[in-house]
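Continuing the series of single-chain predictions for the mutant panel. This is the parent chain; the variants come on the following pages.
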Amino acid sequence: MSYADKRRRIGLIVDHPTRDLPGMVLLGFHLARHDIETALIPMYQQGIDVPLLDLDALVMNFARPVNLPLARQYHALGTKLFVLDTEGGVLSSEGRASPEAIADYTATSGFSDLLSGYFFWGDRLRSAFDKAAVLPTDRLFLTGCPRFDFYTGILRECNPPKRRGHILVNTNFPMANPRFIDGRNDDRAALQELGFDASYVDALLSENRRIMAAMIALVDDLARDLPGNQIVLRPHPFERFETYESHFSGRSNVLVDGEGPVLDALNGARALVHLNCGTAVEALMSDVAPLTPDWINSDFMRRHVELPSRASHSVGSYAEMLDLLRSDVPGRDIDLPGLYRRVAQPYFHLNDGMAAQRVAAILARKVNRAVGNHRSMRIALNGSHLRPSLHQKIQALVGNLAGTAVVRDLRARSKASRKAKIFRARDVQPLLDRLGDLLGHSGSQAASATHPFTGLPLASVIMTPRAAC
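Parent structure:
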């Protein structure tokens, strides 16, 4: 294909498919309307796939120490880099996850020298970046996050309720109950990589373990005192579901269900019960009352992550919680739209279902067709590591010789937790077709990416505008 005929191609890193894939597919759907091809790239396979996909731009899922070396290698390819954070809305008031600290890290780490733009969920973080002059103002884009577009308007039809009238309990304890981290000290190392010191990590883990036990006890009490109500407990995607399945196996009215996006669980719910969980904002988006058992919380956790509590109706005792949940409409006296505007909008922007359109329009304007290509077998054979270890070199060699799709499947067989990170073209196409029906546009055709030299399947999925298929 000549330069004149080359269609722009933008890569999107997908961290956790259950949470992030629908929003990235929606973004790709809108990019297709600008005649842009999209590559959906699994996070674990990105080091090999990105250097092989000839990307004009790449939208990374965060800017953190763990992926800074990769970003430097991608930038060396001549690929424009953007960030659309997978967890950019629920921020701490202090410490490494505060807006000011995130802005400072992005500016001082060298990330700011690599980025062509940063997409913000809300104005709170964008303002911190602007004040710190992390990037020029014309590279700071206030858009909202595409995954929340499904919470309002016609796109809600993509997620019809699986059940109605249930009480949804969301847990948020991946540090205390990790699903994807093996080894006793790995959770501590992951937190310290984010910039928290050892004493802070000790306190955070201790509080998470205490609150997790208290939330389990709360569900036990609610199940006993509300025998006619179905309680659906949804673990965080990065938690071990088995912990809850084992504990509640004797409770007939408690169902542990972590499948699908959280919107599936929110749709049809009477109320959400949570503590320090960002789903409180998603409940407001969905017109479901978020109730937080504040008597369980602590000042330390309120400071660590303040938004979920502020975006919820604070409940001061178990008796009060029980009275609310016995009501036909627990949120009848709560101004949910007003609460969203006052508390959540500075962090999550407009609840208008148009975030993906905003991101796509900006990318279409900022990303040009590039002369030549942005492939590098040398970088792919190093797994995008500047100085790869022998083990990393072997992994990258096998990924190139066998195709990353094969390696992905083999690793999932030996490590069950990897299965949750897998997505394929057959998972993408039904959503694309549904979006086409709802939005009146033909969208894209999804297919597995292939290695440019061997033709073997890669783990990434290419979405090609149908008009030119």
